[in-house]
Amino acid sequence: PDRAYAGYIDTRVLALLFCLMTIMEGFKKTGLFEQMANTLLKKVHTFRQLMLVLVGLCFFCSMWITNDVALLTFVPFTILVLRMAKLNQRMIPVITMETIAANLGSMATPVGNPQNLYLYGLAGISAGRFVLLMLPYTVASAALLVIWIIVCMKGKNRQLEIRLSDGDVQVDRKLVGIYCILFV
Length: 184
What we know:
The chain has nine helices and no strands. It has helices at 5-8, 11-30, 32-43, 47-65, 67-84, 91-105, 114-123, 127-152, 173-183.
């Protein structure tokens, strides 16, 4: 380390990441994630369906909130859902696929990741043109993700045995509103 070493640390990015993680923890404390997890687990019946939904959330949300933010948002949610479904042993494959999906989905729009924003600005094209250029790659990526989940999870597609939270989860809507404002 030299004298300029402290300047190498991007404190702005670290502060933003800290804020995002704090907000995600706040959402979790309000009961919002648990309520969302209960709703999701009532609608899916197999592990394959659950994985498609969780990976799909990362893929499509990363197009608008960047790949990093999508992962910071959905990985804690995924951990909660998989624990509720007693699928702790499946966390690594699901989170790995979410990471791949977030990176692939983020290529679709100029705001999906910083590299796209740079290329978009450098190319001097419209956002619509950028999306059209990336559309074939995005569709191919989505198809490959779905195929992978269907093929690789073939033997692991039995019915889920889920124990949902007892009663309705009470969500503090006022706090959720405050965290949504902070997230934006």
